[in-house]
Write a structure and sequence with these properties.
It contains 10 helices and 10 strands. The protein is of the alpha/beta class and 234 residues long. It has 2 domains: 149 residues, 3-Layer(aba) Sandwich (Rossmann fold); 72 residues, no CATH class. The strands form 2 sheets. It has a 6-stranded mixed sheet, sandwiched between helices. α7 links the parallel β7 and β8.
Length: 234
């Protein structure tokens, strides 16, 4: 499989404070990868670099065959990077339908449209006319995922998509991600639920103090569960 995203020797930070140190990460077409680590280890900074929100101090990011290291965020989005941000950030004063249609795109030859989002998350279909701000936390998370899918991404980044949700809702989210994997949608999943992540993802990268502390496939890391748990702090 060819590389869809390649991060090479990436360093980044804020002002004089460095957060990431020579990070390497590769995601192939159709591959599911994870980014693991405790809070403050650099995961969010890496996501911001991938989205074009901050510029690396050194290193290179290649996405969909283009060097996007210093590209503006809109250009990276046009290339097919979709984000489900931590904290959801749906539009509270728009209806569910309006939230979904606000990001709709026919780019990248995909067909994520309203009917497919409703099929993935039937609960949203029951609330199309409801304001986003009146949804439950779990429904808002489903809406955030649906909104990102409506951009028809080639790579979907999910930043703590199950954090703080009830167990039944988390199960619905993981089931949806399994469906997306079956459709060969490339994903980068940031989460702490190893029980759900290990069977879902093809490859894992764990950060510690801004450096790659551990990486490998689920099979390769199966015997390192104690180390993984220590790195994610649960």
């Amino acid at each position: 499989m060819s590389a869809l995203l390649q991060v090479e020797n990436l360093s980044a930070g804020y002002g004089a404070s460095r957060v990431l140190f020579d990070v390497n990460l590769t995601i192939a077409e159709g591959q599911v990868a994870t980014l693991l680590g405790r809070n403050g280890m650099g995961k969010s900074t890496l996501v911001k670099c991938l989205c074009g929100w901050i510029k690396p101090t050194s290193g290179r990011i290649t996405f969909a065959g283009e060097d996007v290291t210093t590209a503006p965020a809109y250009r990276i989005g046009e290339r097919g990077l979709g984000l489900v941000p931590e904290g959801r950030h749906i539009f509270p004063t728009l209806t569910v339908r309006e939230n979904l249609l606000a990001t709709a795109s026919t780019a990248n030859g995909k067909a994520w449209q309203l009917d497919r989002i409703i099929a993935l998350f039937p609960r949203l279909g029951e609330r199309l006319a409801q304001m986003g701000g009146t949804l439950s936390g779990g429904e808002q998370q489903m809406l955030a995922i649906g909104r990102a899918l409506m951009t028809n991404p080639r790579l979907l980044i999910l930043d703590e998509a199950t954090e703080g949700l009830a167990p039944l809702v988390r199960a619905d989210i993981w089931k949806a991600l399994q469906s997306l994997k079956a459709e060969k949608l490339a994903m980068l999943v940031i989460d702490k639920d190893l029980k759900a992540l290990l069977p879902l993802a093809d490859h894992h990268t764990a950060l510690e103090k801004g450096c790659v502390a551990l990486s490998g496939t689920s099979d390769e890391l199966a015997h390192k569960s104690d180390k993984l748990h220590a790195l994610i702090g649960v």
